[in-house]
């Protein structure tokens, strides 16, 4: 019987995340991966020549150099992908599985390399126990579906605002930080709109909190229906909301903010009647982080309120 000695595994980590999360004095434990300069490997995980199943460490650089650049394009967007390659007259299959950290960031890849000839031989051996595998699969499928269902429910609860059903502040922060990491490589325009309801306290005082909740729900529905699917819309505070607009510069976002302002102004919110919103706009700069972004777009929103409310102000 063939032994399970025809596969190798490699673990590479996002260079930006390692540099951010690892203490400076521990960075010496990492080195640039042979796959890409954007990824690092932990020196302690490099297997010695005599323990490696397929390729010696001295052959790895030549092996990786044999890949076509187009075969590795998935690394830029953390796609899960695979391909076959030939090295020294041997066929190899490579599978790239992307891995997220506990913060939901795409952080690493687990790469498996398998000798194709051995794969066929192993298939013949496993064919005799296919029925057992099928039974185990059905059992595991039920268990996995329960786990996934519970996990999705927990994520929905932890990432959604209970009243409006849009994203909450925590989810916005996670998505924004993920986009900031991607933007270090892609360098695209990202802009932000923050707004709140003018004189919202009067709505609650005059008509009660039930009407106030209706206004928040209806407003969220109007905004959600008039932004792009890829934009992140979240409830940031009690009557404050924030939108992250991908591939959008300040002028495009200003126009969108003005469009949303008019939609809200022209809608009748039940007993509350007509309400208005004040909006601030801010475009991402290279050195920005979460705190800088939210501080600047918040300032822009308050400039709109100081300017008379029911208007849009762009942060310079």
Summarize the structure.
By secondary structure, the chain is α+β, with helices and mostly antiparallel strands. The protein has helices spanning 15-21, 57-65, 116-126, 130-159, 169-186, 200-207, 209-224, 250-265, 290-306, and strands at 7-14, 30-32, 39-42, 81-87, 90-100, 106-115, 190-197, 232-235, 240-246, 277-283, 312-314.
Q: How is the quaternary structure best described?
A: single chain
Strand order of the largest sheet: 2-3-1-6-5-4
Shape: elongated
| Secondary-structure element order, N to C | EHEEHEEEHHHEHHEEHEHE
Biggest beta sheet attributes: 6 strands, antiparallel
Strand content: 15-25%
Mean pLDDT metric = 81
Helix fraction, binned, reads 40-55%
- Given as residue ranges, the uncertain stretches (5+ residues, pLDDT < 50) are 1-5
CATH architecture of the largest domain: 2-Layer Sandwich
CATH hierarchy, class of the largest domain: Alpha Beta
- CATH homology superfamily name of the largest domain: Reverse transcriptase/Diguanylate cyclase domain
User: Helical element count?
Assistant: 9
Give structural notes.
The protein is of the alpha+beta class. The chain has three domains: 7-127, Beta-Lactamase (2-Layer Sandwich), CATH 3.30.450; 129-159; 169-314, Reverse transcriptase/Diguanylate cyclase domain (Alpha-Beta Plaits). The chain contains nine helices and eleven strands. A hairpin with a 2-residue loop joins strand 4 and strand 5 (90-100). Helix 6 crosses helix 7 (209-224). It is elongated.
């Amino acid at each position: 019987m063939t032994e399970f000695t025809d596969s190798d595994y490699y673990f590479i980590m996002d260079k930006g995340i390692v540099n951010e999360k690892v203490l400076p004095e521990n960075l010496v434990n990492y080195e640039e991966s042979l796959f890409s300069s954007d990824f690092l490997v932990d020196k302690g995980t490099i297997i010695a020549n005599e323990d490696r199943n397929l390729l010696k460490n001295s052959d790895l650089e030549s092996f990786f150099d044999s890949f076509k650049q187009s075969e590795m394009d998935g690394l830029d967007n953390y796609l899960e992908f695979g391909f076959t390659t030939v090295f020294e007259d041997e066929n190899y299959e490579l599978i790239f599985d992307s891995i997220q950290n506990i913060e939901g960031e795409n952080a690493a890849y687990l790469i498996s390399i398998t000798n194709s000839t051995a794969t066929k031989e192993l298939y013949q051996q496993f064919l005799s126990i296919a029925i057992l595998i099928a039974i185990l699969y059905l059992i595991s499928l039920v268990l996995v579906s329960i786990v996934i269902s519970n996990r999705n429910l927990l994520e929905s609860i932890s990432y959604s605002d209970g009243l409006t059903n849009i994203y909450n502040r925590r989810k916005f922060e996670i998505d924004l930080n993920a986009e900031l990491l991607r933007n270090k490589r892609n360098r695209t325009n990202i802009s932000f709109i923050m707004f709140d309801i003018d004189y919202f306290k009067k709505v609650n005082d005059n008509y009660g909190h039930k009407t106030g909740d209706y206004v928040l729900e209806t407003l969220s529905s109007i905004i959600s229906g008039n932004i792009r699917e890829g934009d992140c819309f979240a409830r940031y505070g009690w009557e404050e909301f924030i939108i992250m607009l991908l591939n959008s510069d300040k002028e495009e976002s200003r126009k969108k903010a003005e469009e949303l302002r008019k939609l809200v102004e022209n809608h009748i919110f039940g007993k509350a009647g007509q309400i208005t919103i004040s909006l601030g706009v801010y475009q991402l700069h290279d050195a920005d982080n979460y705190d800088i972004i939210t501080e600047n777009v918040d300032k822009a929103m308050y400039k709109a309120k100081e300017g008379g409310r029911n208007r849009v102000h762009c942060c310079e």
